[in-house]
Amino acid sequence: MALKQGDLALLEHPVAKELLASNIPARLAYVAMDGTPRVLPMWFHWDGRQLVMGTQANAAKLKALTQNPKVALTIDDNTFPHKVLLIRGTAYVGTVNGVVPEWAQAAERYFGPERGKAFVEKIRAKGGKQARITVIPEWVGVLDFETRFPRTLSE
């Protein structure tokens, strides 16, 4: 029996695993301080339990995420048949001195090991703090347009 959309066990679906290991940015959706929706591409690191993102410690999204931490993320590819991972959860915000370790891991995944390390070292050399955003999935959906379709196409 196929898992229903929303089931956290979908994180083990081959499409979810592929997208969580990819170098496709997550699109983070949240509500800004003025009450309007925002969507931002964000590098992420999946540790098997949560998505971890890093950003500047003074980023405007941090105040909004602290005020209203409910978020949605999507990771999707650009080839047909499209693969889409949908996640809803709560964002938790913290601050670290220097570079968020998981952000450094993400940089290597996105850029490759050598270029990623060089990029992180440039950021680290500037000093200061980064914010660490974690999202623990509370609802998961997978679309692959072969076996799992949006509800309206399945009816």
What does this structure look like?
This protein is of the alpha+beta class. The chain has one domain (8-154): Pnp Oxidase, Chain A. The chain is 28% helix and 36% strand. It has 5 helices and 7 strands; from the N terminus they run H-E-E-E-E-H-E-E-H-H-E-H. The chain has helices at 14-21, 60-67, 101-111, 113-125, 151-154; strands spanning 26-31, 37-42, 45-46, 51-56, 70-76, 84-97, 129-143. A hairpin with a 7-residue loop joins strand 5 (70-76) and strand 6. Helix 3 (101-111) packs across helix 4 (113-125). The chain is globular and about 50 Å long. The mean pLDDT is 93.
CATH topology, anyone?
Answer: Pnp Oxidase, Chain A
> Which sequence of SSEs, written as H and E, runs from N to C?
HEEEEHEEHHEH
Our count of domains comes out at: 1
**CATH architecture descriptor:** Roll
Class derived from helix and strand content? alpha+beta
* Contiguous helical run count: 5
| Portion in helices | 25-40%
| Rg (CA only) | 16 Å
- Per DSSP E runs of 2 or more residues, the count of β-strands stands at 7
Question: How much of the polypeptide forms β-strand, as a percent range?
Answer: 35-45%
Keywords:
155 residues; alpha+beta; Pnp Oxidase, Chain A; 7 strands
Task: Give a brief rundown of this model.
This protein is of the alpha+beta class and 155 residues long.
Topology record:
Elements: H1 14-21, E1 26-31, E2 37-42, E3 45-46, E4 51-56, H2 60-67, E5 70-76, E6 84-97, H3 101-111, H4 113-125, E7 129-143, H5 151-154
Antiparallel strand pairs: 1-2, 1-5, 3-4, 4-7, 5-6, 6-7
Helix pairs in contact: 3-4
